[in-house]
Every structure is written in structure tokens, then in C-alpha cells.
Write a structure and sequence with these properties.
Elements (H helix, E strand, L loop, with lengths): L3 E6 L6 H15 L4 E5 L5 H11 L8 H26 L2 E5 L2 H11 L4 H12 L6 E6 L2 H9 L15 H17 L4 E5 L4 H17 L1
Parallel strand pairs: 1-3, 1-4, 2-3, 4-5
Length: 211
């Protein structure tokens, strides 16, 4: 792989999507490097259709293992269709969520087992691993309050509608993942103001690109 694979992770309401957009603009403006900005679930045509099934608030009967398998299937298509080709071209890939999300959400919070979900995804990604991951850390009640804020003007998806205890477990899951692979992660306090979070994230990404 000649490119640079950077993922952004964090609980719901951490501000990942907004940060990814700003980082995308900064990379394009200040480095002139070829860049692919993408997201999960989704990221490619087939994977986006799978995303709609997973996050549909009406799909309340979805089994936890079905959810995990659908996410892994979408990720496989995303990797084959978009991520791996971009990295082989030497592009920077900036991805909003990747395998860590499944391990935290389905493995830990759903209670399937973190090792089990990791194994499902290893089959899907065939050893592909981010070069670096920015983890935006925020307490569950703060993140959910942001989502519920009437000013946000967006509908909640099926996972965002889970109880705060579920989101507490997600955060616990991320902490366990980071403890197992600390060198890959840059932890950023997402309870800080948006500009401070951006500056900390950009400093890390700029250093990665410079290297």
C-alpha cells in the first residue's frame, strides 16, 4: 500500500462528520495530495444500500448478529470498491468510522463479543488496517444531548436512538480497543469547542502527511 489510511472514530455525537469535512478541505488546500473522503457504514453504492437497512429506525427487530454481519458485508464492498484501490494509487483515504466502530458497538455494546466481531471483520478486510486513527472522546450523555439538540435539524438513526447505557458501553469498548493498540490512536477530547478539536486533529494529520 502506497497511500495513507486515516480513520476517525468516536461515540455518537462526538462531532466526527463535521470534523472529517474540515479535515478534507484542509488536506486538499494545504497538501495538494490526492484524497478520498468516505464513511461507514456506506462509502460505495452497494454499501450505502446496506447502510440504509442497518440504520433504518423501523428495523427494530434486527438481530445483533445480523447487524454485525451486514456491517461487515458493507465494509467488504467498501474496501474492495473504494479504499484499497485508492491506497494502491497512493491516495490519502480519510474515513469516518471503520472496524473499530463495529467492535465497540456490536462487540461490546450489543454483547456479541469483541473478539467475535473482530474475527468477522478480519475475514472482510483481509488484513487492511488504518495507519492512524483519531478517536474523538465524549461522554455518552453529552454526545446524545448534541444529537437531541433541536438546532441540529436531523433525524436520529436506529443506533442513535439506543438508551444512554448502550452508548456508555460503546465508549467502554473504544477504551478497550485503544488499550490494545495505543500507538495507532490519537485521543482528542471532543467535549472541547469545535475549533480546538479541529486544531488538535489537523496537527496530527499534518504530521502524518509530512512523514
Amino acid at each position: 500500500m502506497k497511500g495513507l489510511f486515516i480513520t476517525i472514530e468516536g461515540p455518537d455525537g462526538a462531532g466526527k462528520s463535521s470534523l472529517v469535512k474540515r479535515l478534507n478541505e484542509s488536506i486538499l488546500e494545504q497538501t495538494k495530495r490526492p484524497l478520498v473522503m468516505t464513511r461507514e457504514p456506506g462509502g460505495s453504492e452497494i454499501a450505502e444500500e446496506i447502510r440504509e437497512i442497518i440504520l433504518n429506525p423501523l428495523h427494530t427487530k434486527m438481530d445483533a448478529r445480523t447487524e454485525a454481519l451486514l456491517l461487515a458485508a458493507g465494509r467488504r464492498q467498501h474496501v474492495v470498491e473504494k479504499i484499497r484501490p485508492a491506497l494502491e494509487r497512493g491516495d490519502i483515504v480519510l474515513c469516518d468510522r471503520f472496524v473499530d466502530s463495529s467492535i465497540a458497538y456490536q462487540g461490546k455494546a450489543r454483547g456479541i463479543g469483541m473478539d467475535e466481531v473482530r474475527a468477522i471483520n478480519e475475514f472482510a478486510i483481509e488484513g487492511l488496517k488504518p495507519d492512524a486513527t483519531l478517536y474523538l472522546d465524549v461522554e455518552a450523555h453529552i454526545g446524545l444531548a448534541r444529537i437531541m439538540d433541536k438546532k441540529s435539524n436531523r433525524a436520529q438513526d436506529r443506533l442513535e436512538l439506543e438508551e444512554v447505557t448502550f452508548h456508555d458501553k460503546v465508549r467502554e469498548g473504544y477504551k478497550e480497543i485503544i488499550a490494545q493498540d495505543p500507538e495507532r490512536f490519537e485521543i482528542i477530547d471532543a467535549s472541547l469547542d469545535e475549533e480546538t478539536v479541529y486544531q488538535k486533529a489537523w496537527q496530527k494529520i499534518h504530521s502524518l502527511i509530512s512523514e
